[in-house]
Each structure stands twice: as C-alpha cells, then as structure tokens.
Design brief:
The protein is an alpha+beta fold. The chain folds into 2 domains: 7-77, Arc Repressor Mutant, subunit A (Orthogonal Bundle); 92-233, Chorismate lyase. The chain has 7 helices and 9 strands; from the N terminus they run αβααββαβαββαβαββ. A 6-stranded antiparallel beta sheet has the order 4-5-6-9-8-7. Strands 1-3-2 form a 3-stranded antiparallel beta sheet, covered by helices on one side.
Length: 244
C-alpha cells in the first residue's frame, strides 16, 4: 500500500494543475480576452478542492496580468499590455567573452528543498513549494567575476531536477530551455559580507554591485537570481530613445 498523500502536497499538486489548465487556455487562445472564467465555486467543484486553492490560483494569474478580477463581474481574461524592457537578460558567459577574457565556471552548491518563507518572497512561490537552490561562481581570466545565487521553481521548471549544473551554468540552461514572458530587475549596492568576500577574493566590506532578477512564464514563477559583482569590475549600460 502506498503512503498517504499529505494535505499540503495534495493542495500544491492541485494548485499546479489548475494553474496550468487555465493558463494553457489563455495562452493558446482558447479563452480570448474578455472571456469570463468560471467562478471560484464552480472551479472548486470541478477540481474537488477548496475555494482557497482556487482563489490563490486566480490571484497568481491576476498578478501575472493574464486575468482581471472585478467585483460582481467575476474574473475575465485581460487584453495583453505592451511592455518595453529596460534591461535585457544576458548570459554571464557572453558578458565575460565580450571582454576578451577566458570564461570560467564552478558549481559551489546545489540542493533541492522546500521553500521557506523568505524563499517565497524572493521567488513568488508558496511556502513549502519545491525549489532548486544553486550557488555558483563565474570567473573572467584569473579573477572571480560574479557570484550567482539562484532559486528555481520546480513546479514551473520540473526538468531542472535532472540537470546537475556541474558543467553548465543554470542561467545559460534556463535561457535555452525555458521561455520567459516577464521579468523584474532590482539593482543595489552592498558591502561584501565575509562569505561573499571569500568567494569573490576581495576584502570584507568591499563595495559590490548586486543585480536581482525574477522571471515568470505566464503566471508561473521561473527563477530568482542574485548576481553579486565586485564594484570595480562591472558597470551597467542602458541604451534608450525618447518616448514617442
């Protein structure tokens, strides 16, 4: 006899199934903009789950901009809104090679685990959701170039479980394997902690540039990554034109 499915695991499985079904109908065009989605009560009855589970799915879809929730009118499929990228998503290897330096990569740590509260904030997943936690170091010539700390949402990217990232950096793999539909960048400056300083071979407290990025595929979070660069080894360039 198989082990009983825990309620939390069952809810997580149903959440992913409902999310995938609704997102698939929207992305495929089966549900065109303006289509009214079945009510929470009807969806809960259809999937045999609680209204809370359905509500979380619809809230996630609304955050992704795929649906709009209106009082009395219910939930409807939205019309897509054009967005302009401020920063492109680059491959670290290409960044290093553009400097005419030899690129190096080393995996520091890889672990599969359940998301903690702080992981949920970073990655936009529920606490307890399965995630992959990867830390690696990119180098340029003989010097460390960038420390990468990445979380991958396994409900959105299940194939990441079978990739060990010992030879291939997760960012490079994700760019090739997982199309993303929206992204968010956050840029800040920090003083290197003892752990970061040791890995980047710099003095503790050295000014570092930190770029954090979250990406989504439709309504599903793909990854959150934190890149930490020694401040004197990296610059940001944004090219833009006047708004029309």
């Amino acid at each position: 006899m198989g082990a009983a499915v825990e309620p939390a695991e069952r809810d997580a499985t149903l959440h992913g199934r409902i999310l995938g079904d609704i997102e698939g109908k929207i992305v495929s065009g089966a549900w065109v903009p303006g289509t009214r989605i079945p009510s929470e009560i009807d969806l809960a009855a259809q999937y045999g789950c609680s209204r809370m589970t359905v509500n979380k799915v619809l809230t996630q879809l609304a955050r992704a901009g795929l649906v709009e929730r209106k009082k009395k009118a219910g939930t409807v499929v939205t019309r897509p809104v054009a967005q302009s990228a401020v920063l492109e998503i680059h491959d670290i290897r290409a960044e290093v090679q553009s400097l005419n330096l030899a690129y190096g990569y080393a995996l520091i740590e890889r672990s599969e685990r359940r998301a903690k509260a702080e992981d949920g904030i970073r990655l936009d997943v529920a606490q307890g959701a399965p995630i992959l936690d990867v830390t690696c170091l990119h180098s340029a010539g003989a010097q460390p170039f960038c420390l990468e700390e990445r979380l991958i949402a396994l409900e959105t990217v299940p194939d990441a479980r079978d990739t060990d990232f010992s030879e291939l950096a997760p960012g490079h793999w994700l760019l090739a394997q997982v199309p993303w539909s929206s992204a968010e960048h956050r840029i800040s400056a920090i003083g290197a902690s003892p752990g970061v300083a040791a890995r980047l071979e710099i003095a503790r407290g050295t000014a570092c540039l930190v770029i954090e990025r979250r990406t989504w595929r439709g309504a599903g979070p793909v990854t959150h990554v934190r890149f930490t660069y020694p401040g004197d080894r990296h610059t940001l360039l944004a090219r833009f034109t006047p708004a029309s």
